[in-house]
Amino acid sequence: MLPYLRSLGLLTFPFALLSVYACSSSDSPSNGDRDAAPPAIDAGPDAHHESDAHPNDDAVCPNQRIEQTSAGPVIVCDDGYPTPPYLHVPAPRPLEGGNREVVGGIASATSFRDAQGNDYALPDGMARAETWDKASHEYQADHLYRATVDSAGKVTKLVRFAKAADALFFRNWEGRAFEGKIAKRVGDQYETTPSVPVRLRITEVREGLPPGWSAYENGVFVPLAPYNPVHTVAVVENIDHALTSANGPCLAPLSALGAEDPGIKATVRLVRVPSMHSPGANTVVVVLESSSKIPTNMAHTLWAGPADLISASGKVPGDFNAAPHGAPQYGIGLSMAPVTGGGAACTR
Questions:
Q1: β-strands 155-164, 72-77: how paired?
Q2: Which among 51, 67, 139, 181 counts the fewest CB atoms within 10 Å?
């Protein structure tokens, strides 16, 4: 899967293309491939990805259903509980030989995380890029597993247990406000350290991809919809009028910057993208609709994975630095933090 820049950005700035993804594949998965079993992990004869979900499992989520896949039945959660943990999973249990079974999610190319936040080492083979191509992106981004863990804390077996709908990873994001800095225009480029006050508010989770998005695979732009079924929409609240900030001062509209105005539109979109540049390099791409040569930024700290859905603390969007792809002076950097209050009209 090769996201992630809008066609215009890729075609007008070749450095962005080089930075987006180094691992292009000519046989991109179709919708049907999403149910195919992911590649086996190279950790001995007992290590494999099979499916182990049963209708009598404790209620992982409200109205859970069972989906039959080529690897067996998997619990599917289209919704979660109203407060963390959003999905409920069985407690760890002891197994023979000093092993134990834990339920959790793949946190990175080398680690597996349970509901208590404990990390376990994944087999060396999981870090290899070929383990993560094609449909396996989805398996580490959206699935919970039953893992067999040995006495040394190493995962020896992964069994698919449940799959979470993409919208669950944006649970409770709507209505959250952020304040921080955005990069101003400097001639035909942008400053590399954002300095202009800006305020965003997340308004909704929307079906489908941002308009105009596509992936670049084998020299051809192809739709990304099979991989990213939803995205989050935010608005720039001080794009053309002044607003109070959370701590009181009046924020000037970006339009008042004149030639230094970064030139973005009011709508900002956020999309989860797993393993963007390398295995386990998960990120949220921030799409700024603008005339900049690099219209997308990467915000790694906004990523929410399967283990976040089973954590008692949940996952809420926190501070993030959204760095442009490629050469930073050709993109519009953002440095943001969540806030409460502010947002009222004011006069400067």
A1: parallel
A2: 67
Degrees, nearest 5: CA angle 109-113-119? 85
> Pairing mode, if any, of strands 111-114 and 119-121?
antiparallel
Burial, 248: exposed, middle or buried (Cβ in 10 Å; 0-12, 13-18, 19+)? exposed
pLDDT of 99 above 50: yes
Contacts of 173 (CB under 8 A, 6+ apart): 202, 205, 232, 316, 317
| 133 pLDDT above the threshold of 70 | no
Helix (H) or strand (E) holding 110: none
3-state secondary structure of 289: coil
Residue labelled with tokens 């790694």: 300
How far is residue 62's CA from residue 86's CA, in Å, rounded to a whole number? 10
Instruction: Report domain extents, the chain.
Output: 7-20+170-339, 31-168
User: What mean pLDDT is predicted for residues 126-146?
Assistant: 61
**Residue pLDDT, tens place only, 29-75:** 333 333 333 333 333 323 334 455 444 446 999 999 999 877 688 99
For 196, which DSSP code? E
pTM of the predicted structure, to 2 decimals: 0.75
Q: In whole angstroms, what is the distance from residue 200 CA to residue 44 CA?
A: 49
Amino acid at 148: T
Q: Please calculate the CA angle 78-111-43 and round it to the nearest 5 degrees.
A: 105
* C-alpha span between 196 and 297 (Å, rounded): 17
DSSP string, 31-54: GGGGGSPPPPPSS-TT--EEE---
Residue 196 has pLDDT above 50, yes or no: yes
CA distance 48 to 50: 6
The token duo for 76 is 């599917």
Q: What residues are paired with 244 via a beta bridge? A: 250
Nearest to 137 by CA among 30, 273, 6: 273
Could you report the per-residue pLDDT of 212-261, keeping only the tens digit for each? Answer: 665 444 444 344 444 566 788 999 999 999 999 999 999 999 999 999 99
Residues 6 or more apart whose Cβ sits within 8 Å of residue 220: none
Supply the pLDDT for residue 285.
86
In percent, how much of the chain has pLDDT > 90? 43
